[in-house]
Specification:
This protein is mainly alpha-helical. It contains 25 helices and three strands. It has a three-stranded antiparallel β-sheet with strand order 1-2-3. α18 packs antiparallel against α19, α20 packs antiparallel against α21 and α23 packs antiparallel against α24. The protein is globular, with a radius of gyration of 28 Å.
């Protein structure tokens, strides 16, 4: 290597090269503390193709050394470092990109894995290699299955089977994806084909279990995936992706609320991963239900304290939503909003408390300002809650909040009133209700609602602002100044609050100036 310098992004904007050869990377830092080493003038694929043949050969030799180092690495992070550097040096090498994508998937960084697969596809288009298109199609299908994107996964499985119709792994994938998409009869047909082609294999049992899961016949799914008569499935060498099998069994147990068995299956899932030791994994036992901190907890294994490697998607979604709402910097907020939306979407598509998951996703969208997406999720979640006979105060509040933001205070009032009736201890509900009442002209009721909000939580910036607005609209300028001053103390950067405070101060000064003398 000729020195150290900054390399352009290798994956999806989260990997940097910084430091010199020989620097020992921090084993669990991400992204800033994981140091990547490479050529100062590393190039993308298009620029790489413009190099003379000798320059390309030199880079291929350097990349080969890094690939060899990846094979010897003790830590998964060291292997990741080496593969990312090799891919940056020789971006036309499809096998390196595929190996990098597989490792990124194992570490839970599925966004980077998707990007690496795109880079592999570009390299394959440039120089087709035997078997690479099949390997790429299967890798894409597994990744889409991770994300519960059944139709996309099936499309890539069909591409793999078009390349090699007798490919056993692709047949397994097709059966699993059909089953989870709810096409039970087609999935069972695939299971039958797998059993007939190799009666001693056990992949067909896995497909049958997933078909029962997709059909919402959970006891049958548990029988096929976890019954005592099927212990051979757990040990069988025919299962190419044993960690995925254990995850499916854990999901069935979780949906049946068999918490202990779900945790055991998730533990088996993480043990089945081919990750190198020691690896950057932290186990966290997290609440399985957002509104029940004292209830059941399920394990989640996090890489770099952010990516879900294994464990309950629902518990991870609850944690990601919590971290998003607690984030104090834009970088953390951006990461955890994406993580929460993605995990909640997976929960919805896999039937993990879909109404609550949809409501939580709508709440995240609302806080991101994606009001159209938020309203679609919240309206549907509320309808589902009503069908279940348990309208949810938080969902009512957020729908009311969206109506207020859309200047539809009249439509917000019944939603917010119902939310206050269900959960009278929720300060933001009273604050938004007070605002809606101000905007519809019921100032007496508005004052009661806003007083209630501030009694419950005097840190409610919105309530101080809304009550200040009420005073302003009623001509009580000095009261408006007092309330808006408190709002400014809590939110000094809020332009809207500051503007209304200045207008109130001017009105006070004007009133005093115009008052008759003694």
């Amino acid at each position: 290597m000729r020195g150290c310098g900054t390399l352009p992004v290798l994956s999806v904007g989260l990997l940097w090269i910084a430091g010199c050869a020989g620097h020992v990377p921090a084993p669990c830092g991400y992204p800033q503390e994981v140091m990547f080493v490479g050529e100062a003038d590393s190039l993308g694929l298009d620029a790489f193709r413009l190099l003379p043949a000798a320059g390309q050969a030199q880079r291929h030799e350097a990349a080969a050394r890094w690939r060899a180092q990846a094979g010897r690495a003790r830590r998964a992070t060291e292997a990741w470092q080496a593969l990312a550097t090799a891919a940056g040096l020789a971006p036309d090498d499809a096998p390196t990109w595929l190996a990098l994508a597989e490792l990124e998937r194992e570490l839970g960084d599925r966004a980077s894995a998707r990007n690496s697969l795109d880079r592999a596809a570009a390299a394959i288009d440039l120089a087709p290699l035997a078997g690479m298109r099949l390997r790429l199609a299967r890798a894409r299908a597994w990744l889409h299955r991770d994300l519960a994107e059944w139709s996309w996964g099936l499309a890539w499985t069909d591409s793999a089977l078009a390349l090699l119709p007798a490919d056993g792994e692709s047949q397994l994938l097709k059966g699993l994806l059909l089953g989870q998409r709810g096409e039970e009869s087609r999935a069972l047909a695939v299971a039958g084909e797998i059993e007939r082609s190799d009666p001693l294999a056990s992949d067909w049992i896995w497909v049958r279990g997933v078909a029962a899961l997709g059909a919402e016949v959970l006891p049958d799914a548990l029988h096929w995936l976890g019954g005592n008569t099927r212990n051979s499935l757990r040990r069988s060498p025919d299962i190419l992706h044993r960690a995925d099998y254990w995850n499916d069994l854990a999901l069935v147990c979780e949906r049946l609320e068999r918490w202990f068995e779900a945790a055991r299956a998730y533990e088996s899932s993480v043990k089945s991963l081919p990750l190198r030791e020691p690896v950057c994994l932290r186990r966290a036992d997290l609440p399985a239900r957002e509104d029940d901190a004292e209830g059941p907890r399920l394990p989640v294994w996090l890489a770099f304290d952010r990516f879900r490697v294994a464990g309950s998607w629902r518990a991870y979604a609850v944690e990601a939503t919590r971290r998003f709402e607690a984030a104090t910097d834009s970088s953390s907020r951006a990461f955890w909003s994406d993580a929460a939306v993605g995990a909640l979407g997976i929960c919805i598509r896999t039937g993990q408390v879909p109404s609550a998951s949809r409501a939580a996703r709508g709440r995240v969208y609302a806080q991101l300002g994606a009001y159209g997406l938020a309203e679609a999720d919240l309206v549907r979640a509320l309808a589902e809650f009503r069908q279940q006979g348990r309208p949810d105060a938080a969902t009512l509040y957020w729908l009311g909040f969206l109506k207020v933001k859309g200047e539809k205070s009249g439509e917000a009032l019944p939603l917010l009133r119902e939310a206050a009736d269900i959960d009278p201890g929720r300060a933001p509900v009273w604050s938004s209700l007070g605002y809606a009442l101000v905007m519809t002209g019921d100032l007496v009721a508005a004052r009661v609602a806003l007083d209630r909000a501030l009694a419950l939580d005097p840190r409610q910036t919105a309530a101080w602002y809304n009550r200040g607005l009420l005073h302003f609209n009623s001509g009580r300028w000095e009261d408006a100044v007092l309330d808006l001053s408190r709002a400014v103390e809590l939110a000094p950067d809020n332009v809207e609050v500051g503007n209304l405070l200045r207008r109130s101060v001017l009105q006070v000064q004007k009133t005093r100036h115009e008052a008759p003398g003694p």
